[in-house]
Every structure is written in C-alpha cells, then in structure tokens.
Amino acid sequence: xxxxxxxxxxxxxxxxxxxxxxxxxxxxxxxxxxxxxxxxxxxxxxxxxxxxxxxxxxxxxxxxxxxxxxxxxxxxxxxxxxxxxxxxxxxxxxxxxxxxxxxxxxxxxxxxxxxxxxxxxxxxxxxxxxxxxxxxxxxxxxxxxxxxxxxxxxxxxxxxxxxxxxxxxxxxxxxxxxxxxxxxxxxxxxxxxxxxxxxxxxxxxxxxxxxxxxxxxxxxxxxxxxxxxxxxxxxxxxxxxxxxxxxxxxxxxxxxxxxxxxxxxxxxxxxxxxxxxxxxxxxxxxx
Length: 287
Ligand code: HEC
Ligand code: HEC
Hints:
Elements: H1 2-18, H2 20-29, H3 41-45, H4 53-71, H5 97-101, H6 132-135, H7 153-165, E1 174-175, E2 180-181, H8 188-203, H9 221-227, H10 229-238, H11 253-263, H12 279-286
Antiparallel strand pairs: 1-2
Helix pairs in contact: 4-7, 4-10, 8-11, 9-10
The protein binds heme C (HEC) (2 copies).
One heme C binds near residues 221, 236 and 243.
C-alpha cells in the first residue's frame, strides 16, 4: 500500500510538472471561487421539488456545517450565548453546530477533546438512528438559540434527518490522535477513479485548480485532506456550503472513504510544482 501511494504521488508530481503553469493560471482565475452564478442559486441554496433522502441528508449536513452559508441567511452577530464562557472561540463561528459537536460528531470525546475547539460538550452520535421528529425538540431547546428566521422548521427537519441517518463513525479511517487518514482504510484505485471523473471537473486532476488559501498560503484539496480529514469527510459527503459543489451522499460510505484515501495523496502546496525548476515565476503567478 505504502509503495503504491509513493509511486502514485511521484506520478502525480511528474504530471503536474507539465501542467504547472496551467494550474497556476487556474488558481488565479478562481480568486473568488465562493461566488456562484445566478443560475446556480437554486441548486446551492434551494431545494428540489421531489426530495430524495440523499439530497435531504446532505442538505442537513451543510446546515450542520454552516447554516447561514448553506441557507443564504445573514451571518449571526457576536458570540452564541449558549457557547461556554470557559471555551476559547468567539464570534459567529460559535453558532455552527460543528463548533460544539465536532466534524467527527463526537464532541469532547473526539478530535475536539483538546485544543482551541475544546468545549466539553458531548457529540451528536447518541441520536443517530432515532426518528427525526424526536430529535427536533432538542434543536430548539435552550442550548440551541436558533430562531425560525435563522433556520426554519422544514430546514431543521433536514438537520434532524442528517443526524438520524447521515452520521458516520470516522474512527475506522481517521486516526484521532494524529488526525490523519488511516492508510489502507480505503481502495486508492477506486478513490482515484472517482476523483478523476467527478471532483477533477472543478479541482483539477491534482486538486490544485481551486485555491482557497489567503495571501501566501495555499489551500488545495490535498492540503485540506492532509490537515483536516474529518472536516473534508463532511465536505465530500454533503458539499461545501454556499458554493456550487457536488456531494457524494449518493455514493456508499466506503466510496467516500476510498476518495479520502486518494485525496490524502494529492499535493498539499505549490512547492510540489518546483519540480519544473521555474519556481520563482510560479510563486509570482500565484502570489
Ligand atoms: C454553543 C454550543 C452548541 C451549538 C453551536 C450546538 N449545540 Fe447541540 N448541544 C449543545 C449542548 C450544551 C447540548 C447538551 C449536551 C448535554 O446534554 O450534555 C447539546 C445537545 C445536542 C444534541 C443532543 C445530543 C444527545 O445525545 O443528547 C443534539 C442532537 C444537538 N445538540 C444537535 C445540534 C445541532 C444540529 C446544532 C446546530 C443546528 C447544534 N447542536 C449546535 C451545545 C451546542
Ligand atoms: C462543480 C464544481 C466542484 C466539484 C465537482 C467538486 N467541488 Fe469541491 N469545491 C468546489 C468549490 C467551488 C469549493 C469552494 C472553494 C472555496 O472555498 O473557495 C470547493 C471546496 C472543496 C473543499 C474545501 C472545503 C473547505 O474546507 O473549505 C474540499 C475538501 C473539496 N471541495 C473536495 C472535493 C471533492 C473530494 C470532490 C469530489 C468528490 C469535489 N470537491 C467536487 C467545487 C467543486
């Protein structure tokens, strides 16, 4: 497995060397990839007339990630009054479900068991499998000061459906201590096949056509998968809220794990392009 992944990486680098300039140009063109066209407004923020269970679960997952981006609402002001005063975060981010309950749904028992996101609050795995209707009242209790202007009842039902049917235990494929994808937990070839035929349409074959880094920092699919795989698993299962991205909710859990295994091998920075030997120009292009 290890040898294969090294070879793959070498091949990917060789290929990316020849398209380095093209990738640089793409990164510049997509300076503000968060924007989407008016024709995509309904796909990104609306709902289909006949809603499949898969669409509903993914839509709920995007609300769990960031409800105002998912639903095109005003960003809340200040810090969530329900956020523990003893914890370190502040500001609108404290209104995101993931901030208290974690990307891995395990709260204080998971990746947020220490560090700047620690709150001591439990995860949401306990409600997995419960009927959505029985989860709904929790989402309107005093720990959850969301008005119906922020998240209306129909939208909250999507969240409850996500909690009921969409949660995945990430411990078999993400090491909680190192926060790394566990090598060998998925099929790399299958992950590559899915990536090259779906994700690459927007992210490019080496994952560097979209760059959401700021200033000199570059953030590609590979960067994100290497550093925050639990977050990325949410993004690929539900899509990134507020942008025109597909999601893999209709694929099996194992296929999503296969993609995780593959994207963890993609280049994490521009440095990997230096193979061409023209790094100075490259840096300037993307600065
Ligand atoms: C500011 C922190 C905070 C945020 C943000 C937050 N919650 Fe909670 N949540 C809590 C607390 C506190 C509890 C109660 C934990 C306990 O009983 O120990 C809780 C409990 C829950 C439970 C019950 C878990 C169980 O097993 O009993 C669910 C489900 C839940 N929250 C879902 C959500 C969802 C969905 C969102 C976003 C729409 C959200 N929470 C946002 C703090 C938060
Ligand atoms: C139709 C275009 C499109 C497709 C297809 C697509 N994405 Fe994206 N993706 C985006 C856009 C746009 C963003 C937002 C970039 C930004 O934040 O500015 C994004 C963001 C991301 C992020 C970063 C989210 C974050 O934390 O900021 C990851 C990871 C990601 N995509 C992975 C994937 C994977 C894996 C696939 C294939 C399963 C995929 N994407 C398919 C358009 C797409």
